[in-house]
Structures are given as C-alpha cells and as structure tokens.
Write a structure and sequence with these properties.
By secondary structure, this protein is α/β, with parallel strands linked by helices. It contains 6 helices and 7 strands; from the N terminus they run βαβαββααβαββα.
C-alpha cells in the first residue's frame, strides 16, 4: 500500500478546502491510502476566535514523528508577506531529526498554497516549500501544464507549475473556484500515481 499524506495549515478554511480536493484526487489511484492532517495552530485560541479563524477543522493535528511513515507528502500553507505561514514553517523546522536520518530521501514531495491577491506571493511560497522538501531529499511533483486549467484566460484563477493555488481575495471572501479545485485534484492524483510507481 502506498501512503500519501496531505499536510496543511488553514487559517480561514480556504486551504482546508484545497487539501480536501488534493486528497480526493490522490484517492482516485488504486492501492493508495490517503490521510489528511493539519499542523498545530500557534495563535492563542482566544485571539484566533476573535480574529475569525476557522476552528472546527475535521483533520487531526499532525505530529512530526508520523511523517516518516508516508511515501509522499503534499504540503499546503498560506502565504504571509510572500512566504510560508509561520505555523507551517514552525512545524517543518521540527523535522531536523528526520532530516538527519534521511527519512524522506527518494520520497515524493509536493506543495499548494493560497494568497489574497493574484500577485501575493503564490510562487515564492511554493518555491519556499519546495526548497525544504529538496533539503530532505524528496523528489518534487508539481502541477504540470498537462493540467490545462492553469492556462485559462476566461477567468481569474490560481494555478502554477509549482503547485495548485487559490486566490482568496483581499477580504478572504473568495473561495476556491471549480477550476482551482480541479487543479488540486489533478495534483493529488499525479503525486499518488508517481509515489505508487516509485514504490513498485
């Protein structure tokens, strides 16, 4: 059985929805087990509630120790000033022990993100996540142009060859579009297929 982990952080629920789509795509591949986990929230609960954070997310909170058991890890994190949200950065910074023993070498890594605006740092955030995965020795699977949705010109849409993305709008009121969710599903399936081939 090939095991795929979708690991994410979502403040307001946009990346939670993208993570669910990524997992849905990965589950389309026979012989693949897919789990969704989220990283711990660092903002104090009282402040998070006051700030409108989505507190009722169904995914269990991940531990660093469980990451080693997966053949592929697809990471989703929002953008803060053009880079990875601190909650995900904090979690990944705790994986040094796994790096020391090469726990992820030869496994598949992938990333997805969300920004408030079209030019809010989607690609820089994805590259930042991919750099971490490369330091762990992972093989990177992005969102190739084989997925035609990222070349659309009839609507504003996320999507990058580095990974699936969504645009939330400056007020956070825009939710992932059908096209963006389709890209997330395509990426999830692609990662799962790749991991399965590598394991056989």
């Amino acid at each position: 059985m090939t095991k795929v982990l979708v690991l994410y952080h979502s403040t307001y629920g946009h990346l939670e929805k993208m993570a669910e789509a990524v997992a849905e795509g990965a589950r389309q591949v026979d012989g693949v087990q897919v789990d969704i986990r989220r990283v711990p929230e660092l903002v104090p609960e009282e402040l998070a509630v006051q700030s409108g954070y989505k507190m009722d997310q169904a995914a269990p909170v991940a531990t660093v120790a469980e990451l080693e058991g997966y053949d592929a890890i697809i990471i989703g994190a929002g953008t803060r000033f053009g880079t990875i949200a601190s909650q995900m950065r904090n979690f990944l910074d705790q994986t040094g022990g796994l790096w020391m023993k090469g726990a992820f070498v030869g496994k598949v890594g992938s990333a997805f993100t969300a920004t408030g605006t079209q030019h809010g740092g989607q690609e820089t955030t994805l590259i930042g996540l991919i750099q971490t995965l490369l330091h762990h020795g992972m093989l990177i699977a992005g969102l190739p142009y084989a997925w035609q949705g990222q070349t659309r010109m009839d609507e504003i849409t996320g999507g990058s060859p580095y990974g699936a993305t969504t645009i939330t709008g400056g007020d956070g009121m825009r939710w992932p579009s059908d096209n963006e969710l389709d890209g997330a599903r395509w990426q999830g399936r692609y990662v799962a297929e790749t991991a399965k081939k590598l394991k056989t």
